[in-house]
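Continuing the batch. This is chain 6 of the set; chains 1 through 5 are on the previous pages. Same settings as before, nothing changed between runs. Recording input and output for traceability.
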Amino acid sequence: MDDISGRILLTYTKSFLEEVASIASQIDVNSVDKVAEAIAVVKVNGGRLFFAGSGGGAGHASHATCDFRKLGGIESYCISDNVSELTARINDQSWEDSYVEWLKASRFSSNDGVFIFSVGGGDAERKVSMQLVNVVDYAASLGATIVGVVGRDGGHLAKKATASVVVPVVNPSNVTTQVEGFQAVVWHLVIGHPSIGAAKPHWESIASL
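Output for chain 6:
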């Protein structure tokens, strides 16, 4: 690597981490607390939590399902984890309806909640991320809890959510990478939130011995 290339990489890395710090300082603390409190209500009422996303959001949904089940003691499911069922529904029904039909088969009710990870939050008018838009609308029609971590202006999710965290845009060129990074930060914050009453993770419990 020549000196010029090295300086370019160093500048990018420094700028990216400066964006991280800026975003962290701008996140609405109250919105995070409201998401945690909404999930706490689902837990107290004996409801279940269903996680949904696409791409990186689907990866977050799978990981978060593990954490909220194991640490949070909340019955939780990831809509996209069963690839056989998901692809069958996409093939036989449609991509747009696949997530909602999955929820219907799970007897999703007003006691339950959905937790959505999306960069844009979906857009019904422009037909963007319609599988998530339809999940939001279905949950709203039942009076279920709707929470999520999204970017940009929050899109359809933010308009109808019980509570949501919108990751602020600091650099329009890094929206997706920063939003998806902070989705992991926020859900890990929420799982450790006093409102949830989660168990200690394994390594923290070992350190306290």
